[in-house]
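Input/output pair, single chain:
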Amino acid sequence: MMPGDGVSDMEKQANDRAGLPATNSGGALVEPTVRKQRTLRVRMAGTRRWVKYKYLMLLRAKGGPAKVAKGFSIGLWAEMFTLPTAGLAALLILPVVYVMRASLPGALIGFLFGKIIYIPMSFINMKVGKMLVPKHFGDYLHFLPDKIEKIVRGAFQLIVGGMVVGVVLGIVTYFPLKWLLEAFASKRKERRKRRKAQLMTPDNHS
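Output:
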């Protein structure tokens, strides 16, 4: 190893025995940066596995493609205004799924997916809410202290904006998701036919 390039093996061992972080020849800490990079890679890998797992769950959810896609849209819609309602919006999932004859597992997956995108979408929800909620809405809250009035008004704007944006997101995701599920179901059906045909061939009976 060239001088100043990093940490020698002897230095690493000495630091490990002493419980000290590794440093390079200039005395700069090396281990914290390495640990942060490793932690970031592990978290990203875990997120990819989680997304892939939920994607497979969605593809294999019981019910027809339209039913599952409809459930996913409902769950995504509910998540867009769950936070400002302190989680009460999640209680709407079950009755809406029942009325719309959608898939509950699909709705739960859509609800979880909504949590991933909620933070960036909340800014859009707030903008839409400010456009839709009348400016004189604050007049109905004049009896509240100023800080509480601002919090209540902001929460109401998030709720209204989230409901509207959630409907748009639900419609936008429904059709491509339905097509994707139909394509997956068709491929799965074809594989089953091929397997059945292979089992019925004379070579398998001899």
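Helices lie at 9-18, 31-59, 65-79, 93-100, 104-132, 146-200, 202-205. Confidence is low (pLDDT under 50) at residues 1-7.
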